[in-house]
Specification:
The complex is a heterotrimer of chains A (492), B (417) and C (147). With 492 residues, chain A is of the alpha/beta class. Helices cover 30% and strands 15% of the residues of chain A. In chain A, helix 15 (479-485) links the parallel strand 20 (472-474) and strand 21. Chain C has one domain (2-141): Alpha-Beta Plaits (2-Layer Sandwich), CATH 3.30.70.20. Chain C has helices at 15-23, 31-37, 65-69, 95-99, 128-132, and strands spanning 2-5, 45-49, 52-56, 75-77, 83-85, 106-107, 114-115, 138-141. In chain C, the strands form four sheets. In chain C, strands 1-8 form a two-stranded antiparallel ribbon. A two-stranded antiparallel sheet of chain C has the order 2-3. In chain C, a hairpin with a 5-residue loop joins strand 4 (75-77) and strand 5 (83-85). In chain C, helix 1 packs across helix 2. The chains are: A alpha/beta (492), B alpha/beta (417), C alpha+beta (147). Chains in contact: A-C, B-C. Chains B and C meet through helix 8, strand 21, strand 22, helix 9 and helix 11 of B and strand 2, helix 3, helix 4 and strand 6 of C. The structure holds flavin-adenine dinucleotide (FAD) and iron/sulfur cluster.
Chain lengths: 492, 417, 147
């Protein structure tokens, strides 16, 4: 086939009055969009541009502007330009459409339909700069009976943790940045399913290690080099399917960490082949607890799917100390687009439902709920806590803090920002010293904002916010949605 | 502590800096025989050419000696009395010292040619020389320069810039014989000739007539309004010899730049320097060495213990837009690697696994590392130069050098104490 | 003080050179003006070798060979230890170029004088290369640990 119908998605404009031919754009674009020849002539290949902004951000004269390629299809409210382009692509390749990061479709975001309360006259608001404000959060089973053995808990000074992102999917420098930030902010980062690189062992007390269906890098040493262990059943971006780290990303170092041959595909099966029931899950949880001498809480992570409350209930009964639920906006390093964009349910609904179900069953105390998938800012955090979560995981937001521009080409391994790559040259682009500072700054800013919003509501401890749906009002929601979320309408 | 320095030039300035790096209090006295202050000799040709004002001739800013609390006495030393620790000046004054530095430099060699004493036959070695030549310059007239060493070439350039017709007479078969190979000398000669300077190599001046003529060994007589004699220099070591210090070609010093008398040090053009490449002691009248030697001698006089490993022969000359930089042993042999592009060229001589000499024309940027490799005798086989000699650049230097410098992180040079 | 490389994080992007050039010769850091109206020249060369890169900047040697070698006294050290060239005095003989063991000092583009890193002493704040390195690969170090 010779003619491609895929016209460029972006166009790169160069302001000739500003461009000084320094060549930074040329040497920074791994997609070879920019070219400079010996005569000083510059040109661009728009087709290669993924809209990551690496060139525009580094350009010392701000000579570059990247805009949508101005080629409009005849307006069609049903057949969007994206639909057409996807078909052209499949007609050319015959393949599954791959993508990265989270579901970008315009589904309703319940975060954007919830409003927070504030104190006026009848109860005082609190100024977090003057009054103590408690964000300390404990995760784990807190239902121990008198005389029962103390259950291990995770202590967070801010109820925000970094989501599981495996070495291989992201660069080691991403993990280094997040691990340092987690330690500094007294919270946790999560290894993801790719094992624990030896450089990161020193962060054990701030680390959650994951055990997923591929069991990459899992050894007794791995399990004990952490504060908690997480069994990954599913992930919001691709519920029901496994993982596939393409061979090109399996560098020698990645291979060593995962304990697999280098430059071979790393396949995580869709299910854990030893888990076909709640009882099987209970067995694995118990095995991990034994392996860690009951010293570490065990978390189980699932994607938010249709009957999530029943599933969560079963997980608690199987012995999970923490249930992490990943909503349908959850991000990934690589997923089939159809799966990412069409499967799962919103995290807001999932948390509201699960929290209610566990309360109704009287087992809410035995578990902590962690919400993940699409938390964009501190207000989202406050809202999801009020809906019933104990803490959140942030993935996309953390990567954006490190420089991710959501170009969604993570699956290619050619991330211009040194994030979703294992290429040595590209990985260099994220200096973990800088990355850590940026991630710390983000958490500090959020911490501050959370305190302010809580103060406004007259709440001085995060414990009093958790599941406090009276602090939420729905706006623009249908009656049944309000009911599912357990909130009343604004003005009600 | 009373420090006395004889001579007020580069080595002296270095010594003041060296002494003060270790001793803030001691008394420093400098005996300035030229009575012109501490100026930099190489600039006198620029003064002559009219491209630098005399105010920029001083080697250190005006306030330097005052700031360093060094007293400068205008006067020539005529005798040293080591037993008394005393220096006697021409006017009969005497200066007492605890530690003495001889930085008396060198003087031009004057060949015994008939007619050499005539007032229009000059050397270009001092500020005063430059002023006297200035009075003899006649635009359109002819100047004959005897000798094509560094000074001869710079004199020729200056006079050419002052619109004189210039003829260089060189006894050897090529110009800049200590610096260049026959091949590179040809390029340099061509450049001089293209700029309008006549170069006669393999010719010797036999006499200078009262009729303003220079007579050559082949009988040719060149009319000349002005003759500059630049056939070499010789250390001013009479004072040292008379004081009973060990001397050879120049004053003999040990690794601490100390003479045979433990209270007397010597530095600069007046001493014999150890040639790192040959291991022998030679007179190397080079400004970079003069300053370093002065500095290290100063350090040692003030009680530190700084070793001076010696130097290599090296020089940078530029004339009329051509930049020549060369270093190493002129008598070396080995594998020769060449690179040439337009007016630029590079010649490396590699003896076994060592770079022993390089000559660069119009490609100065890469010479620093080449000097370091030569001087530090870094082991690099000829094969490792392949990439560099195809396209000389810092990045293409042998990997061993790059690795080494990145380890150096610090200077890799000498340090007091 | 000297600029120290952390070449593990050097991208070889060359922004250090762009900002260095604009920080000197009177362009006052105005990149567009420098490159559109003038002929700016960076003081430090960026070396790229086998996927590694670093800038070949001045080490501001304690006993700087270039200062020893300078035939005019143009090369000096200020009270902070910064080795700089008084370009008024420089005659472009390149003796300093010849002796800098790192090959840091370079001829100006017109070969009329030598140029080198002066830690942006004319401008306030951190040297431009350090300030504008996008990846923290350069830092201003007090004294570098000696091997
Ligand atoms: C035209 C010219 C160009 C040059 N160009 C270069 C160049 O490009 N590169 C290079 O490396 N070198 C060059 N040189 C050589 C360089 O100038 C010398 O190497 C340097 O000046 C040596 O310094 P010094 O302090 O040892 O001695 P000098 O400069 O010779 O100074 C010694 C001083 O001591 C004084 N003195 C001697 N005896 C007594 C006494 N008894 N009492 C009191 N004072 C006394 C002398 O009058 C003189 O002023 C050049 C020289 C000349 C003349
Ligand atoms: S220019 Fe070279 S010799 Fe001079 S101080 Fe800097 S690194 Fe050292």
């Amino acid at each position: 086939m010779t003619l491609s119908m895929l016209t460029p998605a972006f166009t790169v404009g160069r302001n000739e009055e500003r461009c000084i031919r320094c060549g930074v754009c040329v040497n920074q674009c791994i997609n070879e969009v920019h070219h400079l020849d010996e005569d000083g002539f510059m040109w661009v290949t728009d087709k290669n541009c993924v809209g990551c902004h690496r060139c525009a951000v580094l350009c010392p004269t701000q000579a570059l502007a990247i805009t949508e390629f101005p080629l409009a299809f005849r307006p069609n409210n049903y057949w969007s330009s994206a639909s057409l382009r996807e078909i052209y692509a499949q007609a050319e390749t015959g393949g599954v459409l791959l993508t990265g990061m989270g579901n970008p479709r315009p589904y309703r975001s319940y975060f954007d339909h919830l409003l927070l309360n504030a104190s006026q006259v009848t109860n005082p608001s609190i100024d977090p700069l003057r009054e103590p404000m408690e964000l300390t959060t404990y995760l784990g089973n807190q239902a121990a009976m008198l005389g029962e053995r103390e259950k291990p808990l995770l202590k967070l000074e801010v109820p925000v943790m970094f989501s599981a992102m495996s070495y291989g999917a992201v660069s080691l420098n991403v993990q280094k940045s997040l691990a340092r930030a987690a330690r500094e902010m007294a919270t946790f980062w999560n290894t993801g399913e790719g094992g624990l690189h030896s450089d990161l062992k020193e962060y054990a007390d701030s680390t959650i290690v994951q055990v997923a269906s591929g069991r990459f890098g899992v050894t007794p040493d791995y399990l004990n080099n952490a504060a908690a262990v997480e069994i990954k059943i599913g992930q919001g971006a691709k519920p029901g399917i496994g993982g596939h780290l393409p061979a090109e990303k399996v560098s020698a170092d990645v291979a060593k960490t995962r304990m697999i041959p280098a430059w071979s595909d790393a396949i995580s099966p869709a299910p854990h082949h030893d888990i076909y029931s709640i009882e099987d899950l209970a067995q694995l949880i118990e095995t991990l607890k034994v392996a860690t001498n009951y010293q570490k809480p065990v978390s189980v992570k699932v994607a938010a799917v249709h009957n999530i409350s029943a599933i969560a209930s079963g997980m608690v009964r199987a012995g999970a100390d923490i249930v992490a639920i990943d909503g349908f906006r959850g991000a990934t390093g690589a997923a089939p687009m159809r799966i990412r964009d069409n499967i799962g349910i919103p995290i807001e609904m999932a948390i509201a439902q699960v929290d209610q179900r566990l309360r109704d069953e009287g087992i809410r105390q035995s578990v902590s709920l962690v919400a993940a998938g699409g938390i964009r800012n501190s207000a989202d955090v406050v809202k999801i806590l009020a809906l019933g979560a104990d803490a959140v995981y942030i993935g996309t937001a953390a990567l954006i803090a490190l420089g991710c521009h959501l170009c969604q080409t993570c699956f290619t391994g050619r991330c211009n920002w040194g994030i979703a790559t294992t290429d040595r040259q590209l990985s260099k682009r994220l200096n973990p010293e800088i990355g850590a500072i940026r991630a710390i700054n983000l958490l500090k800013a959020w911490e501050h904002e959370i305190k302010e919003m809580m103060g406004g509501m007259g709440i001085n401890a995060v414990d009093s916010l958790r599941g406090n749906r009276l602090m939420l009002k729905g706006i623009g929601l249908e009656q049944h949605e309000l009911e599912l979320l357990g909130v009343t309408a604004a003005g009600d | 502590m009373r420090y006395v320095i004889i001579g007020n030039c580069i080595a002296a300035a270095g010594a003041v800096e060296g002494i003060r790096s270790a001793d803030q209090k001691g008394e420093i006295t400098i005996i300035d025989g030229e009575k012109r202050g501490c100026y930099t000799r190489p600039l006198i040709s620029y003064l002559l050419a009219g491209s630098k004002p005399s105010s920029l001739l001083y080697y250190r800013p005006e306030e330097f000696f005052a700031q360093q609390q060094a007293r400068v006495i205008a006067g020539r030393a005529v005798r040293i009395d080591p037993a008394e620790g005393q220096v006697v000046l021409e006017d009969g004054r005497s200066v007492d010292y605890d530690r003495l530095l001889l930085a008396t430099g060198a003087s031009p060699v004057i060949p015994g040619l008939p007619g050499i004493e005539q007032p229009w036959v000059k050397t270009l070695y001092t500020w005063k020389d430059a002023e006297e030549i200035e009075a003899l310059i006649e635009a359109g007239g002819t100047a004959v320069v005897l000798g094509s060493g560094l000074i001869g070439i710079k004199a020729a350039e200056a006079l050419h810039q002052r619109n004189m017709k210039v003829v260089i007479v060189e006894k050897q078969e090529q110009i800049l014989p200590r610096l260049l190979s026959p091949w590179s000398a040809t390029a340099a000669t061509r450049h001089l000739e293209e700029q309008g300077i006549q170069v006669l190599t393999g010719r010797e001046a036999m006499s200078i007539t009262e009729q303003h003529q220079v007579e050559l060994d082949n009988g040719v007589k060149i009319p000349a309004q002005l003759v500059i004699v630049a056939v070499g220099t010789r250390p001013n070591q009479a004072l040292a010899r008379d004081a009973g210090l060990e001397t050879g070609q120049g004053i003999i010093v040990n690794r601490h730049l100390q003479t045979s008398n433990p209270n007397i040090w010597a530095a600069g053009d007046v001493i014999e320097t150890r040639n790192i490449l040959s291991g022998t002691a030679e007179v190397m009248a080079l400004l970079p060495l003069a300053h370093l030697e002065g500095y290290l001698a100063g350090c040692n006089m003030a009680g530190k213990s700084a070793n001076y490993p010696g130097g290599i022969f090296l020089n940078a000359v530029h004339f009329m837009g051509m930049h020549i930089i060369a270093a190493g042993d002129p008598n070396s042999s080995g594998t020769v690697l060449n690179w040439q592009e337009g007016q630029s060229s590079l010649e490396l001589t590699i003896d076994g696994e060592y770079l022993v000499r390089y000559i660069s024309i119009n490609i100065p940027g890469i010479t620093g590392p080449l000097t370091a490799i030569t001087e530090k005798q870094m082991k690099i086989a000829a094969g490792e130069w392949q990439e560099f000699i195809k396209q000389p650049s810092i990045a293409n230097l042998p990997a061993a050098y790059l690795a080494e410098t990145r380890r150096w992180e610090d200077d890799g040079s000498l340090r007091c104490g | 003080m000297k600029v120290q490389n952390n070449s593990e994080y050097c991208l070889g992007c060359g922004l250090c050179q762009v900002y260095c050039a604009a920080a000197h010769d009177g362009y006052n850091g105005n990149v567009i003006k420098a490159f559109k109206k003038g002929t700016p020249q960076a003081r430090a060369g960026l070396i790229k070798k086998n996927h590694e890169s670093w800038i070949n900047t001045c080490r501001h040697c304690q006993d700087a060979p270039c200062i020893n070698a300078c035939i005019t006294g143009a090369l000096q050290k200020d009270e902070k230890g910064t080795v700089f060239i008084d370009s008024q005095r420089c005659v472009g003989c390149f003796t300093c170029v010849m002796v800098c063991p790192f090959g840091h000092i370079q001829p100006s583009r017109d070969s009329s004088r030598a140029i080198k890193c002066d830690l942006c002493r004319g401008l306030s704040g951190t040297p431009a290369c350090v300030a504008f390195c996008p990846n923290g690969a350069l830092r201003l170090a007090e004294e570098v640990d000696r091997p």
